[in-house]
Write a structure and sequence with these properties.
heterodimer; A: alpha+beta; Cytochrome-c3 Hydrogenase, chain B; three-stranded antiparallel β-sheet; globular; B: alpha/beta; Beta Polymerase, domain 2; five-stranded mixed β-sheet; two-stranded parallel ribbon; 3 helices; 16% helix
């Protein structure tokens, strides 16, 4: 009689496919995953504690380093929270530019997702192609605020500065060449037999399970739930632009892949609409010299590329928040990993981590 | 400044034998303009709570067009379940669960539930306060996503959750001493916990 036992294997925290410092303790029965225990906190920097000791303007660079792949969304959510707390109006030009920057950020973030997801599964070419386009977006961001990854470029009440001359023209050039490039990505993967075999039916989550687990973003929409904050509770002027929110059906990795691809196309369309209708005017509203919100609290949410980024601020009337909590989409989405992986093969764990699109900076804070 | 028709202007000193009148009465206080940030907003969920669980409501506050409802800890789980299942509310998504340390006894820890209803589009914040040594009830039986949120609150504040399936630290190493988000925990940590490089 052959005796079998489950094997406990450690994956990470240094691992090329865990998208950061994530440790998973896998219990395997042969190649089947019997149990999965994520161990996070390797990138915990105590950002929420730090934020209690800094004033509201100093906290913005901290938000850059949460989800560093989508730093513009984090900035947008944070300054939006402070503006809500203080009742500050943002001028229309600033709102429009914020939409353009956030959508460019969504494309850049999804390009990282697509490249790394493909690379983990074994498709190397897609990684180089995605990062080629991402370079152009990062050039645009560098032209706007001087930074490629950690921007700190939105200010409470508007923007740090107006778009530099030539920025709109450069952005339009990028918008022109991008759709053909995305056609190339889809040609490479979407009907590729190996890709389909590795992603169809992998990591299936039903709508009820996804909502119960608190998933948001493409991970939730893949399971058929049409919920996008940009449509549900529009912020920073999103209601002015026409765009669609792709929703999946099967709740598997392949559907989430298609959703993010379509989101990239929709984002390009939104940026084009913004540039076509960019209002004139100032880029900074009326803001007091010292940011001292009245006593109160606010929870502001934005639709980041990974899901809902939430910012809970409690003000005690002073220059520093009494409590600053960041609701991290990666932290919540990672909780679903166990449910999606158990019962599947160990090779699918890599595909599922990729499809959840987590960033450990966001997860651990 | 409102006019006070009964008051005569005070005569110059030295005129006549009348004693100088006292200082004019203060003008009537202006009505404080209502603070738009604290304005009340209609909330279907709050109306339903007032009908179905009035005894559990401890305090309702408004800020920035958001409603915060403080709930008595004993009714917390039944109120949360009601908010999830009631047809008018349908708060199916627990967006966030976080803690705040208010330091002053007896109830220093505040737990905030941020709820969103995907079918109805409502948002609500629920609060409950717990003291040092008290255990909060775990919401994992209502939303699975509460699991890691509660572990994080336990890790960083030290508040335990009764009924949680696996309450242990999540962000910090399991042998860490102390709970950093408590206000008395120093920002730079305790020196004997710093990483020692051999």
């Amino acid at each position: 009689m052959l005796r079998t036992e489950t094997l406990d294997i450690n994956m990470g925290p240094q691992h090329p496919a865990t998208h950061g410092v994530l440790r998973l303790v896998l219990s395997l029965d042969g190649e089947r995953v019997v149990d999965l225990k994520p161990d996070i906190g390797y990138l915990h920097r105590g950002v929420e504690k730090l934020a209690e000791h800094e004033d509201y303007v100093q906290i913005e660079p901290l938000t850059d380093r949460l989800d560093y792949v989508a730093a513009m969304s984090e900035n947008l959510g944070y300054v939006g929270a402070v503006e809500k707390l203080m009742g500050i109006e943002v001028p229309p030009r600033a709102q429009a530019v914020r939409v353009a920057l956030a959508e460019l950020q969504r494309v850049a973030s999804h390009l990282v997702w697509l490249g790394t997801h493909g690379l983990d599964i074994g498709a190397m070419t897609i990684f180089f192609w995605c990062f080629r386009e991402r370079e152009q977006i990062l050039d645009l961001f560098e032209g706007f605020c001087g930074a490629r990854l950690t921007y700190n470029s939105l200010r409470i009440g508007g923007l740090q500065q107006d778009l530099p001359p030539g920025w709109v023209r450069k952005c339009r050039k990028f918008l022109e060449i991008y759709p053909a490039r995305q056609d190339q990505y889809e040609e490479l993967l979407s009907s590729n037999r190996i890709w389909i075999k590795r992603t169809k039916g992998v990591g299936v989550l039903s709508a009820a399970e996804a909502i119960d687990l608190g998933l948001t973003g493409p991970a939730l929409r893949g399971s058929g739930v049409s919920f996008d904050l940009r449509k549900a509770t529009p912020y920073t002027g999103y209601e002015k632009y026409a765009f669609e929110v792709p929703v999946g059906q099967a709740g598997d990795t392949y559907d989430r892949y298609l959703i993010r691809l379509e989101e990239m196309r929709q984002s390009i369309s939104i940026v084009r609409q913004v540039l076509d209708s960019l209002p004139e005017g100032e880029v900074r509203g009326k803001v007091p010299k010292k940011i001292k919100p009245p006593k109160g609290e606010v929870f502001h949410m934005v639709e980041g590329p990974r899901g809902i980024q939430g910012f809970y601020l409690v003000s005690d009337g002073s220059e520093r928040p009494y409590r600053c909590h960041f609701r991290a989409p990666s932290f919540v989405n990672l909780q679903a990993l166990k449910k999606m992986c158990v019962g599947g093969m160990v090779a699918d764990v890599v595909a599922i981590i990729g499809t959840l699109d987590i960033v450990l900076g966001d997860c651990d804070r | 400044m409102a006019d006070t028709p009964d008051e005569k202007p005070s005569p110059p000193s030295g005129a006549g034998g009348t004693p100088p009148p006292g200082p004019p009465p203060a003008p009537p206080r202006k009505e404080a303009a209502p603070d738009p940030l604290k304005a009340e907003v209609p909330s279907v969920a709050l109306d339903r709570l007032r009908t179905a669980h009035a005894e559990a409501l401890a305090e309702v506050t408004y800020h920035s067009r958001q409603v915060s409802v403080r709930i008595a800890p004993a009714s917390l789980l039944s109120v949360l379940r009601f908010l999830r299942d009631d047809e008018a509310c349908r708060f199916d998504l627990l967006i966030d669960l976080c803690g705040v340390d208010w330091v002053a006894p007896p109830e220093r820890f505040e737990v905030n539930y941020h709820l969103y209803s995907i079918p109805r589009g409502h948002f609500l914040r629920l609060k409950a306060r717990f003291g040092e040594g008290e255990a909060a009830p775990s919401a994992t039986s209502i939303w699975s996503t509460a699991d890691w949120f509660e572990r994080e609150i336990f890790d960083l504040f030290g508040l335990t959750f009764a009924g949680h399936p696996d309450l242990r630290r999540i962000l910090l190493p399991e042998d860490w001493r102390g709970h950093p988000l408590r206000k008395e925990y120093p920002l730079a940590g305790y020196p004997d916990q710093h990483l020692r490089l051999r």
